[in-house]
């Protein structure tokens, strides 16, 4: 169903508005109750797409959420089932998830980390009392009621969680590799202490901005964990307190026997703070009121677990195990659930009223989501997303050092665009020096009165060293993957990954990037992520600006009689001679100066789009999200979705998703570093290496999917530079 069809529809008594997230098998919507206007998050799951194991995971989530009522555990209000779909009506967490928080704020103050950790500990205490092990603790699964650093944190996503018999061992491979305990990765037996490894990883990431161990593959990650004898902290984290480092070290002990126990964790000095005990105590009454005692009957037997539920790390459904006779599968889902929720809510109300009256002040008030929302998201910025040196899956999230650019400033900048003629631009060769700016000589077709745009307009065309892209664009087979990367020096590979020196090839590459990113802008917009859409839209402007600069440089060189690079008059026909194709793709036969009017048109259209997008942004004083980071994360998300589709047997859709993901990464690798942005975007050789590996992986999976789909898929592999 299209997004627009979904928005504005009713689910039970709830009016659905915008999409706020998505998981491997779910889409999460913001919605309001039609009568009281209560905001909720509706997690929509298409049951037809779930195999037996995934269905059990869903039942597990419902079952767990029903039996727990605690401020640090996401609350399930209702379950609404329609043919083919189950909707979990959850309490709405305005602050999004902790991964977003880290993404926007970078590493956080130790006090903030402590505050979040105390709440995580409290939530885990509740799980423990209910004999539950989460098994997929990661920042994405920790939701925040508000956006500020005093937000209430809630453990969510219990799809992987399982009940655990005391001292029982679970044998299923679950979780996210970066946060996954080594014993799980090694397919050894594991117990509840596996969650504590994940907690250690989250704490480390909060206070350093990076995950403690990394690797390009899960095996490499495991190897890095195994060979590290002692936990290292980055130099910029040397001011961390002894207690904080001590807790990280003791939680991140490879051997679970040596790792802290839950009791030791709960009592560790870093957390030993009135807040933890208070919150735990305050929640105790509410918890005991409606938590179902963990009995034999409601514990899931460990034998029920099998490896085929371990997506996304195992793609094939191995059909292991008969799935046993989980009590969850026997549960008459909707009726029982609704009754339990109704009863629970009545009890919860009574308990909360009771506490309020008895204590004179509401213990729940500290968890109230009505706390003032910090409107200024201080981490938002258009800034250089320096790739995280250690974390292969995310760019570094250090707090921006420069002044933040806010939406209102950006709008002013866009309004300041005017088209003026300038002196002819200096014509550069395609040598190394072509990467440097040559201020004062360029023809400034576009000028602005402010700081950022002069930097945009000061672009000398970044003409790269080779036209290797030309060979790869659109030629899936001939392009292949980056298998050759290991055979060539990384320096040489870096040179080959520079943008094409052939002007028309470069313009086509930029045009292609703009269209792929435009899709992303549309997706973000439809998903209600206007701010992200707007920030990516600015990247599109930079892309078209780059294309324009190339055209003008070429025009200037023709005027001065300097031999052009790549095309000559005799080889080409102008746009007037030859009709531009309907697809809008520029032909190789054109010269840059001929397509310049079209590019100007595109650019102006995109300026207009940016202005239109800006109208949808509610608070103009908000700071800008990091566009390159968003593009990177979106590429990873597309890749994951590709994995899901592949798993579900839809090879064609998988190939399309892999292709889109790879195109975005190729943009980051090849074109983005040469765009004139403020601040500039750059990649280290390690970043480039990682991007290459991801692209290679995506291309490979795309190849498999295409062959599975019988080679009918029309998707293209991206223009991945490579050596044969
Ligand atoms: N109650 C909520 N309030 C606000 N945002 C939410 C809520 N529940 C989920 N989200 C957002 O939606 C995203 C996806 O949530 P969901 O639980 O469907 O998927 P997931 O479990 O994170 O994905 P996967 O199943 O692939 O691990 C979350 O990361 C979060 O950003």
From TrEMBL:
Give any single GO term for biological process.
protein transport
Q: Which SMART domains match?
A: S_TKc
Comp. bias intervals (Polar residues):
705-716
UniProt xrefs under InterPro entries: Atg1-like, Kinase-like_dom_sf, MIT_ATG1a/b/c, Prot_kinase_dom, Protein_kinase_ATP_BS, Ser/Thr_kinase_AS
Q: Which residues bind ATP?
A: 43
Where is region (Disordered) located? 559-587, 705-724
Q: Which residues form the signal peptide?
A: none
Classify the source by domain of life: Eukaryota
PROSITE patterns the record matches: PROTEIN_KINASE_ATP (PS00107), PROTEIN_KINASE_DOM (PS50011), PROTEIN_KINASE_ST (PS00108)
GO MF annotation: an example: protein serine/threonine kinase activity
SUPFAM superfamilies membership? Protein kinase-like (PK-like) (SSF56112)
Gene Ontology terms: cellular component: autophagosome; cytoplasmic vesicle
Q: Which residues form the Protein kinase domain?
A: 14-271
From the Swiss-Prot or TrEMBL record, state where the protein is found: Cytoplasmic vesicle, Autophagosome
Keywords of this entry: ATP-binding, Autophagy, Cytoplasmic vesicle, Kinase, Nucleotide-binding, Protein transport, Serine/threonine-protein kinase, Transferase, Transport
Q: What is this protein called?
A: Protein kinase domain-containing protein
């Amino acid at each position: 169903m299209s997004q627009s069809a979904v928005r504005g529809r009713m689910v039970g008594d709830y009016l659905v508005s915008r999409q706020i997230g998505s998981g491997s098998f779910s889409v999460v919507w913001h919605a309001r109750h039609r009568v009281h206007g209560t905001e909720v998050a509706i997690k929509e799951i298409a049951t037809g797409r779930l195999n037996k194991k995934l269905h059990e995971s869903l039942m597990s989530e419902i079952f767990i959420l029903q039996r727990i009522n605690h401020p640090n555990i996401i609350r399930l209000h209702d379950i609404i089932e329609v043919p083919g779909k189950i909707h979990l009506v959850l309490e709405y967490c305005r602050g999004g998830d902790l991964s977003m928080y880290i993404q926007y704020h970078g590493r956080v103050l130790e006090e903030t980390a402590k505050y979040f950790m105390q709440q995580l500990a409290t939530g885990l205490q509740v799980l423990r009392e209910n004999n539950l092990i989460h098994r997929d603790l990661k920042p994405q699964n920790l939701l925040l009621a508000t956006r500020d650093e005093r937000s209430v944190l809630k453990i969510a996503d219990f799809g992987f969680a399982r009940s655990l018999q005391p001292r029982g061992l679970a044998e299923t491979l679950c979780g996210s590799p970066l946060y996954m305990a080594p014993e799980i990765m090694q397919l050894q037996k594991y117990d509840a202490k596996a969650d504590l490894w994940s907690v250690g990883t989250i704490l480390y990431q909060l206070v350093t901005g990076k995950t403690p161990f990394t690797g390009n593959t899960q095996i490499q990650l495991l190897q890095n964990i195994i060979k590290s004898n002692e936990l290292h902290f980055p130099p910029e984290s040397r001011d961390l307190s002894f207690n904080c480092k001590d807790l990280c070290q003791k939680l991140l002990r490879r051997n679970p026997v040596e790792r802290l126990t839950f009791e030791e964790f709960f009592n560790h000095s870093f957390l030993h703070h009135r807040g933890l005990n208070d919150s735990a105590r305050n929640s105790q009454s509410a918890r005991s009121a409606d938590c179902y005692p963990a009995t034999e009957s409601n514990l899931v037997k460990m034998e029920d677990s099998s490896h085929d539920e371990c997506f996304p790390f195992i793609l094939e459904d191995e059909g292991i195990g008969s799935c046993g006779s989980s009590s969850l599968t026997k549960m008459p889902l909707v009726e029982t659930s609704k009754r339990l929720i109704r009863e629970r809510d009545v009890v919860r109300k009574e308990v909360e009223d009771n506490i309020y009256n008895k204590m004179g002040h509401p213990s729940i008030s500290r968890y109230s989501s009505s706390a003032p929302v910090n409107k200024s998201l201080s981490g938002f910025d258009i800034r250089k997303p320096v790739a995280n040196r250690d974390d292969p899956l995310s760019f570094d999230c250090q707090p921006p050092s420069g002044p933040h650019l806010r939406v209102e400033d950006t709008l002013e900048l866009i309004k300041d665009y005017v088209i003026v003629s300038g002196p002819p631009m200096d014509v550069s060769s395609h040598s190394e020096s072509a990467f440097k700016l040559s201020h004062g000589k360029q023809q400034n077709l576009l000028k602005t009165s402010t700081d950022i745009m002069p930097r945009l307009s000061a672009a000398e065309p970044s003409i790269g060293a080779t036209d290797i892209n030309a060979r790869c664009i659109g030629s899936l087979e001939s392009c292949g993957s980056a298998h050759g990367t290991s055979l060539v020096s990384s320096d040489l590979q870096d040179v080959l990954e520079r943008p094409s020196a052939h002007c028309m090839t470069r313009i086509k590459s930029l045009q292609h990037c703009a269209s792929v990113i435009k899709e992303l802008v549309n997706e973000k917009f439809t998903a209600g992520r206007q701010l992200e859409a707007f920030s990516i839209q600015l990247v599109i402007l930079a892309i078209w600006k780059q294309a324009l600069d190339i055209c003008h440089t070429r025009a200037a060189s023709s005027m001065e009689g300097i031999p052009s690079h790549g095309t000559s008059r005799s080889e080409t026909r102008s746009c007037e001679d030859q009709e531009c194709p309907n697809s809008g793709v520029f032909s190789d036969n054109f010269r840059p100066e001929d397509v310049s009017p079209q590019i100007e048109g595109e650019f102006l259209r995109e300026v207009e789009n940016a202005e239109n997008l800006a109208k949808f942004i509610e608070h103009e004083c908000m700071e800008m999200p990091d566009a390159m980071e968003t593009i990177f994360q979106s590429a990873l998300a597309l890749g994951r979705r590709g994995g899901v589709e592949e798993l579900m047997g839809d090879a064609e859709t998988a190939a399309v998703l892999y292709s889109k993901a790879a195109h975005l990464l190729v943009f980051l690798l090849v074109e983005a570093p040469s765009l004139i942005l403020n601040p500039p975007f750059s990649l280290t050789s390690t970043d480039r290496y990682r991007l290459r590996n991801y692209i290679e992986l995506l291309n490979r999976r795309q190849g498999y999917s295409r062959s599975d789909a019988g080679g009918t898929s029309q998707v293209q592999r991206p223009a991945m530079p490579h050596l044969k």
